[in-house]
Amino acid sequence: MVSALGQSVPPTGDRPHRTLLAGKRPLPAHVAVYAFVTVPLVALIVAVPLSWGHGLTWLDVILTAAWYTATCLGVTVGFHRHFTHRSFKATRPLRIALAVVGSMAVQGPILHWVADHRRHHAYSDRDGDPHSPWAFGTSPAALARGFWHAHLGWILNRDLTNQRRFAPDLLEDRDLRRVDDLFWLWTVITLAGPALIGGLVTWSWWGAATAFLWASLLRVVLLHHITWSVNSVCHLIGDRPFASRDKSGNVWPLAILSMGESWHNLHHADPTCARHGVRPGQIDISARLIWIFERAGWAYDVRWPTSDRLARLSVAAGADG
């Protein structure tokens, strides 16, 4: 069941695993998952020695930063805050653009991503959560196993979250189903695009090769691990100034690279809020982009935080009550 706010709500009396899953990932797709996890890591090993000397140029740095920023915001603003939690509404062109750019982060097709994340919120840090670091207990060994599971291990599991239960609204959107079906195309574009630009700007195969290494493969692996760190690190440690039913915490060192996603405690206390970093100094680039979209008339009905709501959600207010 999905609430009017886009949040997954377990039906009353439902056993967590009864309708959570919808079969297994097809073997070719599962092989592709392993490839996209391992190949960029191998590229990282190759890139380290190449970075000494002429293996890294300013063009590579600019391309890497630009593609990282765009695809990361596609996930944080698009997949996460818009499609999963409906923290704002978007015009049809913006909605499709966010779906496409988010897909180019190579974190899976949009329907899979949203279904997994809504399931995570429905059962956060409880039985049924696809990637809780607390799934195996609280001993040091159990938490080490849980960290691996939350960071990467769950992705290598072939079980598929039930999209009809967790993302029925997206399944009814023909444009989004088309974007989902074309995930292979967005993957080709996001990997080939930087190489094409690098080759054309330098007019050399070497420029294309280094751009592919840094702005394609290394950019993807960095974005993967930053996103996975929100699942793992931000559910193990961090400040928890707001009351939530799970272990979500704020981890400030990840704030810039995650575009504000690591202000994770308020997000779990108030999932439909469009801004996650609400306290002074908490930079939230994703919220700023939503604000720009709102000013441009492309986003509307934005669920901005209010002082009254933040006061009610604060741990201190709960303790006083």
Automatic annotation (TrEMBL):
Q: Where is the Fatty acid desaturase domain?
A: 57-276
Q: Name one GO cellular component term.
A: membrane
**Membrane-crossing residues?**
31-52, 58-80, 92-114, 134-156, 183-206
Its BP terms in the Gene Ontology are: fatty acid metabolic process
- Chief localisation class: membrane
Could you tell me which CDD domains the record lists for this protein?
A: Delta9-FADS-like
GO molecular function, a single term: oxidoreductase activity, acting on paired donors, with oxidation of a pair of donors resulting in the reduction of molecular oxygen to two molecules of water
- Which superkingdom is the protein from? Bacteria
Keywords for this protein: Fatty acid metabolism, Iron, Lipid metabolism, Membrane, Oxidoreductase, Transmembrane, Transmembrane helix
Indicate the secretion signal residues: none
Membrane topology of this protein: Multi-pass membrane protein
Q: Where in the cell is it found?
A: Membrane
Is Isomerase one of the keywords UniProt gives this record?
no
Q: InterPro entries, from UniProt?
A: Acyl-CoA_DS, FA_desaturase_dom
Family the UniProt entry places it in: Belongs to the fatty acid desaturase type 2 family.
Q: From the Swiss-Prot or TrEMBL record, give the protein name.
A: Stearoyl-CoA desaturase
Species of origin: Rugosimonospora africana
State the gene name recorded for this protein.
Answer: desC_2
